[in-house]
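> tool_call: predict_assembly(chains=three)
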Amino acid sequence: MPATHERTANRPLTTRPKRRSTGPAAREPHRPRHTRRADGRGPWPYLLIAPAVLGMLYLLVYPLARTVLISFQDFGLRELILGDPKFVGFDNYRTLLSDPRFWEVVGRTFFFMAVNVVLIMTLSTLVALMIERLGRFGRTAVLSALVLTWAMPVIAATTVFQWLFHSEFGIVNWALKELGFSSFDRYPWFAHGPAAFTILVVLVVWQSVPFAAITLYSALTTVPTELYESARLDGASGPRIFRSITFPVVRPIFMLVLSLEVIWTFKAFVQIWVTTNGGPGDATTILPVYAVQMALSSQRYDLGSAASLVTVLLMSGVLVLYFRQMFRQEDEAS
Amino acid sequence: MSSRGEPVKLRLLAGVSVLVMTAGLSACSDSSDSSGDGSSGGRTTIDVWLMRDSVSAEFQKEFVAGFEADHPDIDVKVQVQEWDGIGQKVTAALASNDAPDVIETGNTQVAQYAQSGGLLDFSDKVADLGGKDWLKGLAEPGAYQGKQYGIPYYAANRVVIYRTDLFDKAGVDPAAIKTRDQWIDATKKLNKGGTQGIYLPGQMWYALAGFVWDEGGELATESGGTWKGALDSPEALRGMEFYQRLQALGKGPRDSDEAEPPQAEVMAKGQVAQVISTPGGAQVVVENNPELKGKLGFFPIPGKTADTPGAVFTGGSDLVVPMVSTKQDAAYTFIKELTGDAWQKKLAVAMSYVPNKTTLADAVAADPGAAAMAVGAAVGRATPNTPGWAAVEAKNPIKDYMTAVLTGGDAADQAATASEAITTAMKSGS
Amino acid sequence: MTTTRPRIRRLPLNAAAVITVVVCLFPVYWMATTAFKPGRDIQSDNPALLPRTWTLDHFRAAVDADGFGLFWRNSILVTLTAVLLSLLVALGAAFAVARMRWRGRRQFMLMVFIAQMAPWESLIIPVYIISRDTHMLDRLPTLTLVYFMMTLPFTIVVLRGFIGTIPPELEESAQVDGCTRLGAFRHVAFPLLAPGLMATSLFGYITAWNEFTYANFLIIKQQDNRTLPVWLSSFQNVFGTDWGATMAASTLFAVPALVVFLLLQRHVTSGFAAGAVKG
């Protein structure tokens, strides 16, 4: 196929113009291509995005606007049922931001996110690289295992984790005891803040690695084998090949997965809610848990909305670097 | 939201009599009501929400058949609701245009729904329903600011379920256990070899509440309209101290409640001499291990002194009617029948419940579990009757407190922390 | 090269693979075996890796639950529609973003990313109010649309990433050969997108298949419109949860994901085999 050759040659340029090993000069010959592709003017692009935009406007922007509205109202169960909420200005935000507990929760959320994201990205990159090197059978086995992990219903996964770490009947305490760590006899994992936090990290990482690893592996399959071969002929070492060939190609997908994992761990909720309810004390309460405690348990939908909107703002703050990079990349590409 | 408020307000003005009018207003969403032949020929179909396993399938069938025979103009469609997420579900129903007509809800949940204005006020019907004999533990939580929204449906409270064979072997006479000290002594005798004297998980906070009440303490106290957690009072601390002594006489996990793992399944394994449970739990034990059939007995939770039984939390359900129901008359007929004496007696016998009226207590005299329960029900208590309490249960700092103390924390410090958490939760939820 | 050396060199790799599989599958395995254990053995002082006695009671209880067939039908309907709809819509949008230059492209991508961050736990109240006021409560299309929107931003973002890794030259050369622009995309780029399509459709499927809160909140009175996650939570009563039945149900519940994956995987490998990548 003639396409293959061309594709191989251009690969690192199209995906990652910024940091490629071939040097900036190599980009110039391809400039004409981009100008030729500027044919996207006219109605086509707008027609293609129209369904997505319309859907988002009605199903997301509109409800989001209502959430903003609710966050400026006195909106509890009564207002949900009878209507006629009162406008209270910034009262909810004032209540929220002056609550010292809220700021503790914010700090904990960032910590939780950072720990999880680092672990998820490291482990899933390693797993993806491993899958790529496996034979056909091994690859299918590992991929199937990942998919099953991913598909295991959250309620079952969280319950099983609770069982594994159960103080009296858990297999973890049993195994530790058998191995001679008698201090773990009846050790109540969920009664200690740091222990409960750790278990939740393990759970979230365990549930998140499959998606990240499968996606990264998919991206790895698009790295042309010729590149590896020529690098190996040049005598490049494994880590060096990864740094200068593999990573530049998968970098966009890697960054994408990274940003998604930031969002998802920031929003991790079900696992925590089912396992610890945010406890013991507040040890595992992160922002979404806090928001739901407000909204659904205390029926303060106004405070819950305000907390969620603050969460979105904080998240955007984390991802602003990613956006900037994404746009810079786009600017160079066009 | 204005389209929401209108029908409700109209109904408030015009009262229940203008059913036709309100039905017209929300007719556009009424398509679901047609379910079968219901709405034709002057018959009304009412939707009733009952909780999963709160009544047996046989009783439900018998009652519905009996009711429809007596009221040929009403069809009853029972929908069984799941426990998981029920709070949100009821909220969604109350706020919708097309709510069910009768909802079973936990007695302690009524206040928050009543406060929101989503429930029909039954104050003028109390006499008609025989309200003067209602169990306090059901009727009081069903009322909010002097108005009756929840109609008592059934009650159940905790008793001690014990293994008759293990008691015999240890030479303990359950009938002689009348005080807490005797209870502890007996349990110590049972707690030998492979047998656990009692399986008491660390977070059974309803049991703790009973011990606290026995000592004269409270979960929370009100003064001047604001509620404060009260677990740090000396009385409440004594309650916790007793819980800790009792809990140590078995291998109950200190960091989970009776549902995790289900204690009936633990007892079914055969090494547990006693559990604290509603009598219905015995049936689950036997289902899991048929060999224990006939080997389970019941006695009321002992009090501090021999003359008063231990205080217990009265659990149970009330029936409520959403404001938006378009068939409030038929719903009332249904409630009157189900909470009336005839069916209450049958229900109590079928399900080992305490009937909703003190005058009906004899109905279950022949049932040892229900009889033990009735002793406790006489001194039954409820959690603080305020909308804010639901927020406490949602987060439940009491459970954290119990685990902290049982795993070696300082009781007074932990109690202060927990009381503060209760205060905060009640404030945020009201 | 001798035959033993690569085998020894592959040893750490294979060991890592085995460890990965074990770590991933242990909780899954625990779920599945629990489904076969009698109730009182489920949580026990000395946990057993294999059930001491096997029972099918839990599966029976799970399958006998009220409305079992209806729940499956509803879930399949809602999930498939939502996933296909979002794939279709996202493919168009991702193509426009990755391959065309137009005013507002940046704003569009920013919007998609913000959509990705949407706080769905809090959006439930406005979504509920809007559905109520438009008489869309209790209806499956409402749920379908919500799931469509939950997965759409992700699908756009990921597909855009994958389209970005396919060199436009491939399509251009096809266009030179006489294909139309879209035809070139369909015949040349589409097969290369298979891994991306797999990742996104699996994601959409798992999201929609597992979602409980909206299913619980938006389907109120029409019990016939409830979906499978509600079934999963139906084994709870006042005495606790029947975990055996819950795990049996969860096992049945997870099986379709594996089937979907195995089906899709064949297409993915055939896409590779077409020579476009390995070449």
